[in-house]
Amino acid sequence: MKVSHLLILALSLTQFIACSQPSPGTGSSQFQFTGDLPPVISSPDNYNELDAQEERIILNKGTERAFTGAYYDNKKEGVYLCRQCNNPLFRSTDKFDSGTGWPSFDDVIDSNVKEVPDADGSRTEIVCANCGGHLGHVFRGEGFTEKQTRHCANSASLAFLPGDFAKKEAAKQKNTDVQPIEEYVAGKGYEQYAQATFAGGCFWCTEASFEQIAGVVDVISGYCGGTEEYPTYEEVGYEKTHHAESIMIYYDPEKINYETLLHIFFTAHDPTQLNRQGPDVGPQYRSAIFYHNEEQKAEAEAVIAELGQSGKYGSKIVTELSPYKQFWTAEAYHQDYYVHHPENPYVQRISKPKVEKVKKAFSDILKEKNKQ
Prior knowledge:
Blueprint: H1 6-11, H2 52-59, E1 78-82, E2 88-91, E3 95-96, E4 104-105, E5 113-117, E6 124-128, E7 134-140, E8 149-153, E9 158-162, H3 165-174, E10 179-180, H4 181-184, E11 194-200, H5 203-210, E12 216-224, H6 233-237, E13 244-251, H7 258-268, E14 276-277, E15 280-281, E16 287-291, H8 294-310, E17 320-323, E18 327-329, H9 337-340, H10 345-361
Parallel strand pairs: 16-17
Antiparallel strand pairs: 1-2, 1-9, 3-4, 4-8, 5-6, 6-7, 7-8, 10-18, 11-13, 11-16, 12-13, 12-18, 14-15
């Protein structure tokens, strides 16, 4: 497995007055978001509450004074939403300084902004395509940008959500097989179970070891402890993301406790090896415990101290103890790899002895089907 075993695998998104159908070339860049945005509100009964200034502008088509709005000079990266219904309207990457004193954008997100000619025909109003709230006006041919378009909006009509959503989407599209753990387990009813997250070398080995144990509901292979979103197996293997190959354990605390899981973890791998496990070398194979709460942290510290004082290993335990932040499920072919590929040379030579060691040490708490 691992990068060092890739050969085995090969084989085996000029009018200074604030500013329906989208115009050609407007919102042509399709852009989907990754779940970090609030849901768009479709029912008027549930629209966000507006203050008096916002009502004057959004509902009664008013205009805020130039250079007074919150966003006319905002240079942060993020997305501008409809203040009334959360509909994503503009990207920060399409914002420019027009010198007019109102937020100016030369493009919109998809078809989320609707254009409506003013009653006198002199200008074109822009409104939210979802709720119809007034945003401002659109002007063309002014020469501000190559797109020759200025969506001139009132800050009061907008809500700003900071974040690099374009980067998030690019990362997601890079590897659609990897998901945040929350998406992967959605609808499975796992909310009733507790979670434990460990890293102990190759996740083929640790996943299979914990799957033997009664009270363990599911074990999912993935990546934890890194910085990049939607990391690929290859990126982790080449140490580009700082993740460790990890497992997420969902367990029934009425049948097995966290302390017992810790002892299984320290049996399933060698916690004295720094940034490696046997033939797998690199920080992606480090020994780590990602605690979900202070109670887990305290229990982990106690077990590490106990094992260290016992002299069981003969060398110092180097297991990293870090707060849990995010777990990314690994590609589908990694899940249950031990079960699906018993003939794999790595499984036979490296994984199987570790699994058998766990089964022998914890024979009294094995699942019935594993008592062989």
